[in-house]
Structures are given as C-alpha cells and as structure tokens.
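Minutes, project check-in
Item: structure for the 218-residue chain
Input as provided by the requester:
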Amino acid sequence: MIGNDWDEKLKIIWESEGFKRFYHIVEEEYKTKTIFPPKDHIFEALKLTSYQDTRVVIVGQDPYHGVGEAHGLSFSVQKGVKIPPSLQNIYKELYDDLGIPPKDNGDLTNWAKNGVLLLNAVLTVIKDTPASHRKLGWERLTDYIIKVLNEKEEPVVFILWGNFAKEKASLITNPKHLILTSPHPSPFSARYGFFGSKPFSKTNEFLKKNGLKEIDWH
C-alpha cells in the first residue's frame, strides 16, 4: 500500500480482517461524502518518510477539514492555501528558536523528506466537521505505527503538542528515545508554553548527540 519498508512493518495490520473491514467503511465514506485528504494522499506521511528514515515524529490530531487544505501530513497545507494559525505559530517558534524565517506557504513536504514523520492520529475527516472520523478505527493503525517506531534501535524524537498528542506518550517506552511535549501551537494555547519551548533546536541537539543527521527545518 505504501511502497517502502512500512509495508512490511505494518503487514500484520494491512492483512488483518479488522483493518480490511474498517478500510471498507472509509472507502464507502469517500463514495458518499466529501472526505479529506484526497484518497490518494491518505498515507502520504508514510510514503514520504520511511520507517528507516524516521528520526522525528510530530503527532497531529486529524486532517484539516477545509477544501484544498489537507494533503496527508500533520499541520501541513498545500501550496497556495492560506497558512493556518497553528502553523503560523509553528513558524514563529521556528524563527525564534533557530532563526529560520517563515516560508510563504504551509507545505511541510521538505520536513517529511528530511526524516520528520508528520503523522495525524486520525487520517481522514469529513468536510467542515473536525474530529468526525475520530474513533472510526484509524487509531488502531496510528498507535501501532508509534509502537513499532518505539522499537527502533536508533533514537527517535517524538514531538507531542497539546493534550491529544500527549496521550500517545504512554506508547513510547524505549529509553533511547526523546519525548518533547508542550501546549498545542493553536492561538488558544500557544502562549501558555508552546512559545519558547524550542522543540527544533532540542531535537537537533539530541540527534547530534546520538550521532544522527540533524533535521533541516527550512
């Protein structure tokens, strides 16, 4: 389904009767409703960032629910789409942390190609209805993804912004890994600890200390 080493890592999920039944429900939703992201972008995060290449995971909740926004990467929107407020705050913190000026678009594909798995916990959403596919069944897959990443020998940085993402910390038990948590970058919470949390420099310091390639956050 993916075209890289995730296919083998997730084989037990892909071949399970439970996932097949669940994915049939997802396919029916696409036939009867307006669902985001486009169907061929559901697994974009896994396609762009292989298991082997994953050095950082940024956990999001579910895709953006506006037309043309979601394209399968957490917090990212396609070029030409207005940059969402949460991503504007991420760019602000990136500038304050590493001096990297904000881009003129919200496409984080370069991060994904650099080893940052931009994983939403729920991979689809109904148009204009946030969290509409929460509890549909995606969490079984995405929790399993975090569990197999937890098994990696190479250290991984897990960036968990907000209470929803922090719930995933219980799945990360390997002491080799680093968990960075803060409030969500949303305008409602960013000023309560997201700003000034320096996740980007902390990530690169940890990777460098462990002899791994740092992330190019441009």
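Outcome recorded: The two ends are 29 Å apart (CA to CA).
No further action items on this chain.
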